[in-house]
Sequence to fold (127 residues):
Amino acid sequence: MNVTGSKKNLMSSLGSNQRKVCVSKSDTLSLKRQSELLSVTRKCVYYIGIQKDIPVNLLNSIDRIYTESPYFGQRRIRITLSRDYRIEVGRWMIRRAMNTLGIQTLYPRKNTSIPNAAHKKYPYLLK
Fold:
């Protein structure tokens, strides 16, 4: 790890995730000192997250349902999975699978910033 400049400059230039990546176990500095310099807790340095694999048949089923009806959210996908495919899964597993596939529910969103041309604009009188 090559530290140049002050600690304050390093803190402002890197985000917290980038600072966690900068800590290396093979460096001459101890992990404690590296985490102090980067203002990262040592818990973050030692923590290894659990990766849960999503079954391929679940991903394929969700993709098939989404292709047929992209307006289904995670709740309706869950109901369709249990009814048609006999797959019992929680909403959060479906949400994680949708994030993995990179799909989002299609629904009408607000469009408040574009005024309607047919509506009259009234002047502001309390100036």
